[in-house]
Amino acid sequence: MRIPPLFSLFFYYFCLASSAAAIEVETYAYLKNETAIFTRSGAVIGQHNKHSGTAEPQHRSGDFSKLEFSANLFLNSELTENLSGHMQLNFVYYDEGEHDNLKKHHTLYSQQDYVREAYIDYTLGENTDIRLGKQQVVWGTADGVKLLDKLNPTDYREFFQNTPEEARIPVWMAKLEQSIGDTGNLQLLAVQAVPNRIPGLQAGGEAGQAFMTRGVDAITGPVNGFTHITPALGNTAFAFGQFAAAFTGGLSGKLESVGGNTFTVQDFINGSSPFCPGGKPVADAGIPATINSCAKFLDFVAQTPGLGGNENVTNLVEAEFDASQPDNTFEYLAQASFSTFDSFSQAQTRYRRKYPNDEQMNFGLRYQGNWQDQVNYSLNYLYHYDANPVVNVHWEDPQGQRLQSFITDQQGVTGDTVRTVRLRKDDGSVFNARDPLAENDGVATLVFEESLQRIHSIGGSFDTQVDSKRFGSIILRGEMVYEHGVKTPVINRDALAIGDMTQGLSTVSADFFKYAVGADITLLTNLTVGLQWIQFINLDYIDEAGNGYAQGANQGRYTAAQSTMHLTNNLKKADKMENFISVFLSKPFGESQRGRVNNLFLYKNDGGNWNRLNLEYVFSDQLLGTVEWNHYFGNSNSLFGQLHQASNFQLGIQYLME
Fold first, then answer.
1. What is the C-alpha separation between 43 and 210, in angstroms, rounded?
2. How many CB atoms lie within 10 A of CB 628?
3. What are the tens digits of pLDDT across the range 57-93?
4. Cα angle value 351/199/639 (rounded, 5°)
5. Which residues contact residue 113 at a Cβ distance below 8 angstroms, ignoring those fewer than 6 apart?
6. What is the pTM of this model?
């Protein structure tokens, strides 16, 4: 991503002005090391393959989960009476654990960017300030959650463990601040649009990354991700096409030629197909005698080299088939006709990013004020690209032209209607996927396209202090935001059941209302206690009844749980209202209160919990040490509980040089 031209111009002006005028530059620096180890043995999400008979790489308690060395250099300069400059350079070595492929030295637009900040400040008169360059601007003060604080994207590669200042990604922006009256302040911003950095959300995934969530694993994971499963499904479809060619004496390699539009995957399992009649695989297909059921036959074709060739790598199918409790791909596709797989023959996938260009900016407006010297408040508006990336899927032909799905119906072998999903080209003709015996249009590609969605965010915040006889001064605070046009994932289990991937996995626009209210009190002389209630409400929540094609839990069409939906949890349904409770404790200790111990506990209504205990101690004016324990527990399909195996213990040391 390039530096926007306007900001680049001002940045180079600052550099040239500094060197030309030989202006004095104030510098200071710090050296820092953070080392973390896993506190639990096991496998993180995306690392474990429960379907493989071979041992998968897993970490042990005490293995490194993070090793980071960094040197930060700060430069400040007064260029003129009204013009000053600031720069923060970050030289870093960063290793995310035991796996060589996760070692990173410098990564643009992340916590490990060489240039963290680079901006100039210009004072125009007594009441107007302008800041241009790479920077971070903070809106909102809620603990452990970002409601208004959305001007800068966030690096989530360490989940929420970093301080907000470290996790926040500085971007290029222009900020104008105007003082109004005695207490008012107006802020106008033009901000570079940059996405959040989500672990694993990239081509090929990021297997072994400790903080990859189930929702991302369902897209790019090597075992449960659709980007990896679809080619395995395509190879299995092609293998059955070869069986069809044998059944027709070499006349056709299409499954439709052997009545594939009259029986489904479930019919096949039940023994109602020419490949496995009466529950027994055909004797002349070269199938080992141990393959004595149709479910085992399907698994054999899918896994065997030279046929499907999956070799138990992806979560495609198992030898035991139960669509009423689906946890693998074919169980979710139980009502797909075999003719549907004609379109899947040797299908491939592609992961593509389609981001806004540098001229497409975010724009923000904030007014801060004070009401009767009692209540501080802000009113905020942001017209922006949602920093959370959206992933949509569509089919393309080998020339990159879009293909549309359509459905045909046929009476099936059991008397029920069987639905076949086909692909259509722009000219209306049917797309004929790879056929071993006939002319065809080649291989269809399922494209996963990551993009950013334009949304509106309108909100505000307040804080005030009240006195009580029992607790003394209590700070009450809150912030809220209404988001319009947010893209959310929607699962249509009935469409998925018949093999319609693009209708089964889609996104829709929804509006959200989010708020947080909290109170901060002081107990036992200097123990700070912060209590907070947080709620996210999906105002366009979807939960529609199905038509009976899908089995098991979570039928019909529904809003999916973006961070936790997965093949192994029935593609989890989202909650219409997500509720969080946070409790924050902080207390100084030691001589001159050089030390401080903090504890943040977060609970979410899906049954997941996160507890962060950290201690920091100032040994001298130059030396600071930290100790931190992050423990994730609770429901394994919850936001926090899914990271149970990523629980860690971290040591840090920082040395300041002036």
1. 9
2. 18
3. 688 999 989 999 999 999 999 988 899 999 999 999 8
4. 115
5. 90, 106, 107, 169, 170
6. 0.93
